[in-house]
């Protein structure tokens, strides 16, 4: 039943059916930051979603960033409701592995988080990230406001120009509204995986090309 589909997103007929409720419980608190993983979050904090390959190493990049209040990993951008990790790995759910970042905009801006995102992976690789191959490892941004959307799109264009000067290809990062792409938290053992397994696999690696900030604001 779980035949693989790695080079394209599934059609509605190919997508796995999923289930109305999750098959597992999500831990209450972040093992590093100590804060709750799921909302409601304190007033004044903002949420942003980033897909940049295997979410184990990607999550650590963000929880190590000043101003980040909590992080959790999950599946987003697909069709199958409440997928499991095994299902998402087949490519038949359509989801990307994503890190949800809850942050204090008075300490770290969304634009600065985008710099972490762009510099921590190669956004030109399509349905893969390094040796991790499949639609689950695609580059993606799911935004939580029109301002985030505009800033994300502007930063993509800015970074594209920098990458091209460095000899890299076109960015394949998809950008969509989080409201239209449900985020499903991943299983317990995936949350803060590299804190629980310090020697665990981390496939995160950027292009080595710095991303400028301060030139990609939505207001110009």
Account of the 3D structure:
Residues 49-202 form the Peptide methionine sulphoxide reductase MsrA domain. One of its GO terms (biological process) is cellular response to oxidative stress. The active site is at 54. Has an important function as a repair enzyme for proteins that have been inactivated by oxidation. Catalyzes the reversible oxidation-reduction of methionine sulfoxide in proteins to methionine. GO terms for molecular function: peptide-methionine (S)-S-oxide reductase activity. The chain is of the alpha+beta class and 220 residues long. It has a domain at 46-108 and 116-196: Peptide Methionine Sulfoxide Reductase, Chain A. It is 22% helix and 18% strand. It has 5 helices and 8 strands; from the N terminus they run E-H-E-H-E-H-E-E-E-H-E-E-H. It has helices spanning 55-63, 85-89, 110-119, 146-165, 193-196, and strands at residues 46-52, 68-76, 96-103, 128-129, 132-133, 139-143, 174-177, 184-185. It has a 6-stranded mixed sheet, with helices on one face. Strand 4 (128-129) and strand 5 (132-133) form a beta hairpin. Helix 3 (110-119) runs parallel beside helix 4 (146-165). Residues 215-220 have low confidence and may be disordered.
